[in-house]
Amino acid sequence: MSITAERQSREALLRLASPRAVGILALLLGVFAAFLSLPPIEARTILWPILVGVVGAALGVWTAMRGLRRLGWGAVVLSALGIGLGILATRSGSENLNSVFTASLIASMLVFSTPLVFAGIGGMYSERSGVVNIGLEGMMLMGAFFGVYGADKGGSWVAGVVAAMVAGGALALVHAIFAIHLRADQIVGGTAVNFLALGITGYFFFQLYHGEDVPVGISTIPRVNLPWIGDLHFLGPAIGHLNLMVWISFLLVVLSYVVVFKTPIGLRIRACGEHPRAADTVGINVYAIRYGCVVLSGVLAALGGAYLSIGFGGGTFNDNMTAGRGFIALAAMIFGNWRPFGTFYAALLFGFSTALAYRLPVYSATAATLFQALPYVLTLIAVAGVIGRTVPPAADGRPYTKQ
Amino acid sequence: MSVEPPPSPDPALPPETVAPSGTVASRIALRQRAGGVAVPVLTALLAFLIGGLVVLATGHNPLVAYRDIFNGAGLNWFFHPSTDTARNDAYNLSQTLLQTTSLILTGLAVAFAFRCGMFNIGGQGQYFVGLFVGAWIGHAFAGMATAPHILLGIVAATLGGAVWAGIAGVLKATVGAHEVITTIMLNWIAIWVGTYLFGDGGPLQGADNKAAHVPISADVANSAKLPVFWGDKDLQGLHIGFFVAIGALVVFSLLLNRTTLGYEVRAVGYNPESAAYGGINVKKNLVRALAISGAFAGLAGGLDMLGYLYRYGVSDIPTSAIGFLGIAVALLGRNTAVGVALGALLFGALLYGTTHGLQSSTIDPQAAGNLTYMIQGLIVLFVGADVLILAVWNSRRRLRRREGSATEASAA
User: How far is CA A169 from CA A156, A228, A321, in A?
Assistant: First the structure.
């Protein structure tokens, strides 16, 4: 053994104790704290989740103080959640546990996150090109209603999806004209678009269906039954019978990542959102890009809405059906830092919290209700910069005047 | 934990954004210049015209529909006034004014933040917090004498709204979080908190309702109910909160135009950098302006709860749009006290005239209620497009000037 070998081993040890490694360990411990009390391990005492969670939180604080604030505070939050869930879980019977934490939880997480993915990715395109879009809620609502209407009158879910895309795109075009050419305040415009959609869908729903429900049995977006996986023990109920739109949403995320970050058109979109004057100077048509992106955001948000009404909704509509999902999608986009995969993970997290909120009444109905507010609280924390800092595109929300 | 220095409002502002369409405040200044009363009136008329076309397209007569809404809102009372609320028009008018009361306050909430260069979309959440606090104080302090009980309820509701908006203000001042995003999130947090509070097993659910599993709050005690001065207390008569709202209009105007606080708030609204250069504490004013703005909305919630609602259910929460309507009221009213009052009356009449007051079979109340949303959306859309309005305005003025110079030339 020489001195160099000894130094090498010490360096290896130091690398292991680097803030990043400790932070990741803290994250894992936080998850583990919750996992301990769930099937299949099911520790029956609250000591273990608390112990593991506290260690995770302590390591998280250490990491945060070493400069990796995002990772460190993330680990603290996860550990706290882990302790809470662990305590909740040990206090209830194991049959309750089995009814909440099953494979179908994953399926229902995907059900709730899919509309958020569509609308969130749509919003990302719009804001990456420099147009703030808080009208996602309204565009989703248009998609939800015209999806049902198209499927009903056109006789096929394909017609419904097309009608939804056209309606969402048309509403987005209104927003685009006011935001881009008339240089109206984009937040005012988005608010207006939300009201308009609420009025239009409510009015036409009443006029076209005379205050009655949509007839039952209209064509809906089919499920994809995977031939082999469908029969498996855990994967079967989790992903074996998902709606077609869920798979399309996965595809959309990957595609959007490639388009936005790996292609010339994506570069142009981002240039318009960061510095439109520079983009204009090199010959990019800022107005055309922005129009395209805003309309695309409406089309995608409407797909999310159509999924609500003729996808998992099974061909129904009611007034204000989206009930704030457009705003959760907006939150997911912000939480995901205006990036496709970030938005996707945030949508999964928010979908998970909604899915859990629907199952937690086994324990406590009131606490489950509060769980629904989690996406908004997390986004508030995210924009406050406690866990990392979200950075919108530099020219987001600024109208561009050609010189 | 070290807090990063907040980014300056607009680091290296690109030149193209300075001129006609930079900050919210500069747009407001622009709008203020864009002609006095004519523009909002034209905006409203245009919205009604398009709304009427939609009604026409679905096979109804828009003139009849609008006349029914007018009568349903009780505005025909002005042709033959009377204080007897047994009469339909008088009762309808009292109900319209009830809505106007809340709309004035939520409109002021949006307008006050606007004058400081901020967009408070959280009026709905702040209104809800006022409602919740009002419901709690109104029920929990049942033994108190009437006057202090009412006062306590209203003050607490106002403070509740101020605190809720203040969160967004503090986040903006300390870490630069955009108030639009934070107030949207706070809206939804308030909605779910309310669902929890009044929900089955929630802390504010009434005792009888708890036994029957009905998600409705406990009733406000009689000692906390506001006196009614027009109409029957049991039939949602018009309560004295109406005068509180009128008073709030005066306070708003005086506060902004006659006090140092108002001067600072407006200075920050016009240009934060030059305000800071002039020795004004920008951060303090951002927090202060949002808190005052939230106070107006919280007051609206408190007055509604103690004035005529008396109880609130989980199912009422998603149907309430008073706070959101405040945005349209403030924009239409150009963020001035008189404008907000008129805007609130218009939307109060629309709200009651369409959703409750419609007596005739020409157009179904449910469809007409959605017409309100549509007209509201159109008004907000057009009001936001000041460039469009300015373009029309300027071309008209240019035309006039050309005519003027032409006549001068012919005279010479």
Answer: 20, 38, 19
Contact check, Cβ <8 Å, A199/B371: yes
Q: Which domains does chain B have, with CATH numbers?
A: 23-394 (1.10.3470)
Measured between CA atoms, how close is A207 to chain B, in angstroms? 7
- Asked if B98 and B308 touch (Cβ cutoff 8 Å), the reply is yes
Computed over its alpha carbons, how large is the radius of gyration of chain A?
Answer: 24
Q: Which residue of B has its CA nearest to A323?
A: B318
What tokens appear for B400 in the block?
A: 């006039």
CA distance linking residue A104 with residue A95, whole number of Å: 15
| pLDDT tens per residue, range A364-387 | 666 677 778 888 887 787 777 655
- Structure confidence by residue, pLDDT tens digits, A326-369: 988 988 888 888 899 989 988 988 888 888 777 766 666 666 77
Start and end residues for every CATH 1.10.3470 domain found in chain A: 103-384
Does the reported pTM lie above 0.90?
no
ipTM exceeds 0.90, yes or no: no
User: Which pairing describes strands A223-225 and A241-243: parallel, antiparallel, or unpaired?
Assistant: antiparallel
CATH 1.10.3470 fits A103-384, yes or no: yes
Contacts of B349 (CB under 8 A, 6+ apart): B69, B70, B73, B74, B75, B96, B100
What single string gives the DSSP state of each residue in B300-352?
HHHHHIIIII---BGGGGGG--HHHHHHHHHHHTTTSHHHHHHHHHHHHHHHH
Chain B, 350 to 409: residues with Cβ < 8 Å from chain A are 364, 366-367, 369-381, 383-388
The minimal CB distance from B184 to the residues A327, A365, A372 is found for A327
Termini Cα distance of chain A: 72
**Cis check: omega of the bond before A40, within 30 degrees of 0:** yes
3-state secondary structure of A389: coil
Strand partners, B313: B216
Instruction: Tell me the chain A residues in contact with residue B180 when contact means C-beta distances shorter than 8 Å.
Output: 132, 134, 187
Nearest to residue B384, comparing CAs of A364, A52, A119, A397?
A: A397
The amino acid present at B162, given as its one-letter code, is A
Residues of chain B with C-beta less than 8 angstroms from the C-beta of A69: 1
Q: Is B50 on the interface with A (CB under 8 A)?
A: no
The residues facing B239 across adjacent strands are: B228
Residues 6 or more apart whose CB falls under 8 angstroms from that of B2 comprise none
